[in-house]
């Protein structure tokens, strides 16, 4: 299926969509975040490890984001954000009857079933065959140090292209209401939600979420704990002690931006009138 966006009430030349699911990341210098700024070996590994996902309600697109293949409990699954399946009005509610499609690195789209942990906003997509793809093993604990150089990676669902941006891990506390989240200076778009944060050795550091001023991520050790909850608490391992708060983990909605039309300058105002000495005898009057 194709991800569609609502059309604006008025269409004009030069308008463009803001906060779509197809925006590439921007680098710190403002240039486009094509997947070109990492080593060849790291790029090759991530290209077989990062996927894109989209959810649909009937033929209507609901959400799209990135994900990473993980190996857990002798199975390979897709780890991603629960934003893929949760309600935009009530973040503690899963939307019923959504169809999940996963776009694999080879461009093939396959369907899967989801399990969610709503407290940490993660989802796991199962029942998919992943031939010749690389999965991240989460069993090895890892210490995440402040100042470490990292790369945030995402894959666009519409084109299947990878996008990335660099940054460092900071000691800043996330604005989102989860004390497990850490923050990096990588600046992602909505397409990078659910995508991996890795170091320059290719080690999986955590899963990215979205915020306006920063990129929070859930560290791999906490993700492993969430996956263990799926084994003991079933398909929707939500923490019932967490009160519903629809604005906790906001995701910006797409909107159309119209070009700024400048008023044409007054040509008379732009004329440079030079001072002149006028002789009254040279003036002529017409009646």
Compact overview of the structure:
This protein is mainly beta and 287 residues long. It is 8% helix and 31% strand. The longest helix has 14 residues, at 220-233.
Helix and strand sequence: EHEEEEEEEEEEEEEHE
Mean pLDDT: 76
CATH topology: Thrombin, subunit H
Largest sheet: 6 strands, antiparallel, barrel
Radius of gyration: 25 Å
Number of domains: 1
The strands making up the biggest β-sheet line up spatially as 2-3-4-7-6-5
Enumerate how many helices there are, as a single number.
2
Helical fraction: under 10%
Structural class, please?
mainly beta
CATH architecture: Beta Barrel
Distance between the first and last residues' Cα: 78 Å
- Unreliable residue runs: 28-32, 237-247, 266-287
Name the features.
six-stranded antiparallel beta barrel, 15 strands, six-stranded antiparallel β-barrel, single chain, 287 residues, Thrombin, subunit H, globular, mainly beta
């Amino acid at each position: 299926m194709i991800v569609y966006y609502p059309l604006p009430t008025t269409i004009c030349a030069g308008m463009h969509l803001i906060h779509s699911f197809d925006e590439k990341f921007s680098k710190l210098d403002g240039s486009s975040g094509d997947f070109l700024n990492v080593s060849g070996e790291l790029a090759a590994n991530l290209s077989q490890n990062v996927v894109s996902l989209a959810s649909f309600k009937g033929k209507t697109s609901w959400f799209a984001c990135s994900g990473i293949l993980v190996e857990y409990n002798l199975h390979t699954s897709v780890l991603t954000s629960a934003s893929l399946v949760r309600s935009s009005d009530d973040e503690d509610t899963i939307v019923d009857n959504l169809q999940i499609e996963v776009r694999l690195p080879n461009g093939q789209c396959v369907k899967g079933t989801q399990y969610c942990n709503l407290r940490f906003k993660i989802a796991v997509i199962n029942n998919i065959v992943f031939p010749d793809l690389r999965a991240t093993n989460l069993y090895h604990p890892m210490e995440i140090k402040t100042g470490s150089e990292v790369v945030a990676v995402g894959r666009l669902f519409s084109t299947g292209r990878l996008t990335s941006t660099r940054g460092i891990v900071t000691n800043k506390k996330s604005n989102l209401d989860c004390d497990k989240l850490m923050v990096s200076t990588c600046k992602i778009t909505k397409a990078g939600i659910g995508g991996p944060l890795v170091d320059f050795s290719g080690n999986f550091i955590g899963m990215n979420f979205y915020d306006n001023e920063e990129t929070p991520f859930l560290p791999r050790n906490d993700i492993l704990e969430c996956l263990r909850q799926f084994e003991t608490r079933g398909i929707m391992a939500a923490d019932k002690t967490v009160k519903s708060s629809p604005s906790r983990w906001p995701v910006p909605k797409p909107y159309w931006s119209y070009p700024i039309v400048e008023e044409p300058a007054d040509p008379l105002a732009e004329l440079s009138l030079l001072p002149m000495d006028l002789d009254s005898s040279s003036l002529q009057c017409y009646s």
